[in-house]
Amino acid sequence: MRNHIYMGMLVGLLAMSCGGAKTADELWQSAQDNADNRQYALAIKALNRLIDKFPDSPLTPRAQFQIADLYLNGTGEMERAVEAFAVTAEQFPDMEFGLKSLFMMGFVQSNYLQDYDNARVSYEKFLERYPNDELIASVKFELENLGKEVDEIEALRGVVKGE
C-alpha cells in the first residue's frame, strides 16, 4: 500500500517537473520564439493555451490579437485572421486591441477578401463604437473607396504611378 502511495507521489512530482505547467509569460515567450522561427502553428497553439489557461491575464487580449496577426501576416489565412480579429473585437471592445481588431477586420475583408459588404459592416461598426478615434479618417477613406481599383482612387494615383 505504501509503495503505491510513494509511486503516485513520484509520478506527480515527475509530471510537474517536466514543464507541463507553464506560466502565461512562458507561453507568451514560447509563442514569440515560434513566430520568430516561422513556426506559426506552434505559436498560435501556445497563444491559445495562454488564453485558455489564463483568461484573466493581462497578456490575454494581446495574445488574441497576436493570433489574428499571425494568420494575417504569417500563414496568410485571411478568413481565419478575420475570425480571430472578430473574437478580439468582441471580447475586448474597450481596449486598444479590440479597436484595432475591428479596423483590421474591415481592412482584410475589403483589401484581401474583396468582401465589401462585410467590410462596410465592420467599418460602420467602427464608426459607431469609436467616433473620436484617430483611425476615423482611415475608416472613412476605406468606406468611400470600397471596391475601387487603386488607379480609380484619386488620392492614390500619384503614389501608385510614382508621380
Give the domain tally.
1
CATH fourth-tier homologous superfamily: Tetratricopeptide repeat domain
Number of helical segments with 4 or more residues:
9
Give the class from helix and strand content and strand pairing: mainly alpha
- Using only C-alpha atoms, the radius of gyration works out to 22 Å
Mean of all residue-level pLDDT scores: 88
Please estimate the helix content.
over 70%
- The appropriate CATH architecture is Alpha Horseshoe
Low-confidence stretches: 4-19
The first-to-last residue Cα distance is: 85 Å
Overall number of strands: 0
Please explain how this structure is put together.
The chain contains nine helices and no strands. The chain is mainly alpha-helical and 163 residues long. The protein has one domain: Tetratricopeptide repeat domain (Serine Threonine Protein Phosphatase 5, Tetratricopeptide repeat). The model is unreliable at 4-19 (pLDDT under 50).
Keywords:
mainly alpha, Serine Threonine Protein Phosphatase 5, Tetratricopeptide repeat, 163 residues
List the helices and strands and how they pair.
Elements: H1 2-17, H2 24-36, H3 40-53, H4 60-75, H5 78-91, H6 96-111, H7 116-129, H8 136-144, H9 157-161
In short:
Helices cover 72% and strands 0% of the residues.
